[in-house]
Amino acid sequence: MKSIKIFPKNKLKEFIDNPVRTYSSGMYARLAFSVAAVVEPDILIIDEALSTGDAKFKEKSLNRIKELRTADRALILVSHALATIEDICNEVIWLDKGKLMARGNPTEVIASYREFVNARKSASSDEDV
Which tens digits make up the pLDDT trace of 19-37? Predict the structure, then answer.
């Protein structure tokens, strides 16, 4: 089993014996992602887990996801972070109220989505539309 450092050692030591219900949303997301990513699952579903945490956590998480993706694993990423989707995914499914709107190349599907929601490409729209 591979060890990765997503949860800073000093934070983990400080809070490891506390009940999980006392963790902040960022701490909980780091712990959950760390556990899921370390076990090297065949299928990994990530639902907005990367929307919490600081830039360093996001960078480490994205790098780990890229490692898992290259190891013949299925990765399902649920997110509104368009730049992250475009960076990580090789196929995208866009759903609107349960209806399949588009499926295919990330750049093309994201362009269609932007047009649908009338949002131009920008730093704010790339990260949370």
Answer: 888 887 777 777 777 777 6
Largest CA distance in the chain: 48
Q: Are the beta carbons of 37 and 26 closer than 8 angstroms?
A: no
By the 8 A CB rule, do 61 and 50 touch? yes
Q: What pTM did the predictor assign?
A: 0.65
Query: What one-character DSSP code corresponds to residue 97?
Result: T
3-state secondary structure of 46: strand
Report the distance separating Cα 128 and Cα 123, nearest Å. 9
φ and ψ at residue 55, rounded to 5 degrees: -60, -35
Nearest one of 129, 44, 41 to 86, comparing CA atoms: 129
